[in-house]
Amino acid sequence: MDFIESLSHKTKIINRYLDSLLTFDNLPQNTIFEAMRYSVKAGGKRIRPVLALSVSEAFGRHDFEGLLPYAAAIELIHTYSLIHDDLPCMDNDDLRRGKPTSHKVFGEAIAVLAGDALLNYAFETIANTDDDPSMKAKMLKVISRASGIFGMIGGQVVDIESEGKKIDKERLLYLHNHKTGELIRASVSIGAIYAGKDENIMSAFSKSLGLAFQIKDDILDVEGNCEKLGKKTRKDGEKSTFVTLFGLDVAKEMLKEETNKAVLALEKVCADTTFLKDLAYYLLDRQS
Ligand code: GRG
Q: Which of 97, 119, 228, 273 is the most exposed place for a label (fewest CB within 10 A)?
């Protein structure tokens, strides 16, 4: 299988599993199920769960079945963060994953609840597994920390408070390493844990990849195509981004540097990292 075939194979496995998680039988009519499904099934690259599966594979564990609840939980949490981030009280966006945002379709109250529901359902999905308690505890620790105050939410608060202000590089790195980076790091960690390895075994790789991912996101906001991205561009004018702080050319250099650092870090890990290296370069060139 070449890289694109393997990526599409993994994405299909993840989408099938997400579909099964969001298929509810014999339930009372309730908009919440529809709203949850709407945002998750709107699309998305599934990069975080793909990373989890690829790391497990790199360490020789190819039976993804037991990893899917954890990988899907991260995608549910990521989707919740997008719904909330698009709300009028945050970024106030109308378009996400090529479709009208949740609050545009269901109204603000349901959109808030759909985000809350996805977050809760992520942890319920993990709770429903019959896994070895010690592995489950490790997974829970990694995922809850990455999505909470020491991770994504912590970064989002700094992002909101930095709007319209000039911040320094250290604060910019803190913001993005938390808002975007921690969930990407957690995706790599759960793949490693599932394969019986230490959660930090690929942390140099995941840290650089997370940063590169955000730098690319900032570049795409300026140079990207709204149709391909499935969201509006040029929204970051008042925000602290790698482009607003350093300019487009420097941001592009930083992106290359951080991607190369991620790939170099993989060379120090004893695993079959071919797919992960290809993925890092694929993300460098992505247009959506
Ligand atoms: C509101 C709790 C809360 C957190 C918000 C993650 C986040 C924090 C906001 C989302 C907006 C944003 C641009 C975040 C940066 C992370 C990022 C690049 C998100 C987009 O991820 P992709 O490209 O999206 O993986 P898809 O749609 O492909 O899943």
A: 228
Q: Is 6 in the pocket of ligand 1 (CB under 6 A)?
A: no
pTM of the shown model: 0.96
235 neighbors 217 (Cβ within 8 angstroms): no
DSSP string, 152-171: HHHHHHHHHHHTTS---HHH
Chain segment 46-56, per-residue pLDDT in tens: 999 999 999 99
**What are 124-155's pLDDT values in tens digits?**
999 999 999 999 999 999 999 999 999 999 99
From 46, 74, 79, 85, give the residue whose CB has the most ligand 1 atoms within 8 Å, as the site to mutate: 85
Counting atoms of ligand 1 from 1, which one is nearest the CA of 231?
27
Q: Is the CB of 82 under 6 A from ligand 1?
A: yes
